[in-house]
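Annual report, structural modelling task.

Input specification for the adenosine-5'-diphosphate complex:
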Amino acid sequence: MENICVGVRVRPTVPSELSNGTYWKVEENRISLHKVHGTPISGLSYAFDHVCDGSCTNARVYELLTKEIVHAAVEGFNGTAFAYGQTSSGKTFTMSGSETDPGIIHRAVKDVFAKIQLISDREFLIRVSYMEIYNEEINDLFAVENKKLQIHENLERGVFVAGLREEIVNNTEQVLKLIRSGEVNRHFGETNMNVRSSRSHTIFRMMIESKVKDTNFSRDYSTSDAIRVSVLNLVDLAGSERIAKTGASGVRLKEGKHINKSLMVLGNVINKLSDGAKQRGHIPYRNSKLTRILQPALGGNAKTSIICTIAPEEVHIEETKGTLQFASRAKCITNCVQVNEILTDAALLKRQKLEIEDLRKKLQGSHAEVLEQVILTLWNDLLKHELEREKLQMELEDERKSHREHDKSIWEQQMKIVDLCDIVTSSGFDAKSGQGQDSVTQSLKQECNDSNSMCHGDTCRTPCFKASPKAFVVKRSSYLMLPDYSPLPDTFSNVVDEDTWLRINKGHIVDLDSLQMTPARKVQSFPSSDATPARSSENYRQEVQHLKRQLLIATEERNELEREHAEQILLNHRLMDDISGLQKEAKLILEMPKRLSKSVANCKDIYGDVLSIMQSFVFDEKSTSAKLLSSTSEIGMCLFRTLETHFSMGMDDHIPFTGNNSLIQEQRKVLYEKLNSTITSLVLSQTPTAENEQLEAKQCSCENKVVAWSQLSRFHALIMILFSIMLLGLFYLNFSAF
Ligand code: ADP
Ligand code: MG
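The model returned the following structure:
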């Protein structure tokens, strides 16, 4: 027998809540309440295994209160450490810690792997699971889809949570990564006392299996090996609450009530256990999920450590007293601890070891790390199948249980009928018919006893009711009182003829539409207690055939779904390709204004150069040519400015470049008009009139004429260039309008 290890951890004081009345003083392994001037208050001094003050680190708490349990777990002892205390007293800080000071869970995981490294003569298999109890429902933190899990108990595994995901792990980082992913699924909420208050109890579990290393691998599963299996529970409880203090309402209030209820049950269990073995009586483990799961750790086969966290502020004095009283009671509990060694040929470790060896051989030559990863994945797959199988077994067991209960109620009904027969007999039959009735009663009693002994005997066998024809009549009338149970042969006969009925019973599949009038069958496995022995076995055979058919259909449906799934994946890939192509195009379109803007800048430069060249040929500032040039320059610059504004708008807004049609159209119109008027004036200035010719003849010498004509022909060439540029500009305007 071994006492539970109990420690108290005082959270550092919150500066804003410093008191001037009383304070908690920590001296070695004692904590006591003192008045402000130092006098201890009598009756409020408590001693524990360890008491840690506000300066104590998680490393120290681990060293003092958990390390031993973790090491013992590696050696095959069950172990549990949990943090208990009011909201905001530091439970989560103790269990999970912070970046700079990792908590107990982190340290325990690291320690387990460090410890197994040192044990060279044993080989280990470690599995982890992480669950929370939220509003009295168990949820799997590793698999969000696993909700409302049920607790079961059997001889092999003791108390366990069915369907909980377990991951096989082989190093610390892997576990911490899993925990981080699980933390995301945890229920937190804000209350007046803690901005991130845990609204659920969480249980992180490590299942440690180990066996002595052997060198010769044996394929013989019947060889029994001693395997140690231990469970290490690290529990972060939700805080005990006073509703008034936390200011909870609505959802928070509902959570608070569940939390308080389960903590109250935990307190009751601790109280009962601390009464000592003789006075213990009934321990109410089953009154809450928390105590049910922790049952082996409380007064069972586990080394247990309770870390009671307290908030030292005066305002929390009542809660602190409550926590210390809880801790004092817990100190008296004794557990009976022993190494869990099992001898089983079905041990997971052995089977998996053989699988691993097979894989190693097959994958020889591959990279070691990849190999390890593949092996680990396969291990996990195997484990998941195991869990799945277990879940199905559990469901089957439930099914059988309800079946048995059903049989029992039928048996009770039969007994009632027998009693009624007795009453009828005793109320005056003639001797002959009375005898007959007696025999009916006897046969009924015999039959009931038969069926009852079957119920209580082989629990796994489906009970068989050996009914006499007379009894059948009696029982059928009792079924008629339960019209929901169908189809019965007589009910059926109203809908389908005898031939159809026989064909159905022989496994023939009929058109379901022809049976649409048949009353719905609400109970899947209705006992065939109204059948004769021959009929009964025939019915079983048909039931099996029917189930086989259903299985076949389900398999086909599953295959179909898998096919559809594969097609969907293919389609998704194609769509993803299309999307990436479109994204590339969109990127190009978005870049268009920038590129066009560059082109405009280049054109503008060229245009400027051309104009300056042209201006160098104009000698008279007031001549028609000069006027034409300035007008052309103005049109050109206006054109380029419009283009620049337009493209820069497209770039700045980061909107798809669509062009501003109305603005462009307007600009284009203005430019056309200006261009037309320029061309007209140019044509007019170049058309030789009689007056002009005479004037020229008079005024110019022959030499001057030659110079003027040569200038005019060069000017024509330049005008042509200018037109080309303007046409180019118009082309750009049109382009941008698209
Ligand atoms: P609980 O889980 O008991 O509701 P928490 O662990 O969330 O409380 O602690 C409440 C706050 O107090 C958190 O901000 C936590 O970081 C801080 N805290 C608790 N204990 C300590 C400690 N020993 N040292 C430093 N900070 C602490
Ligand atoms: Mg917490």
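The pocket of magnesium ion (ligand 2) is lined by residues 91-92, 198 (CB under 6 Å).
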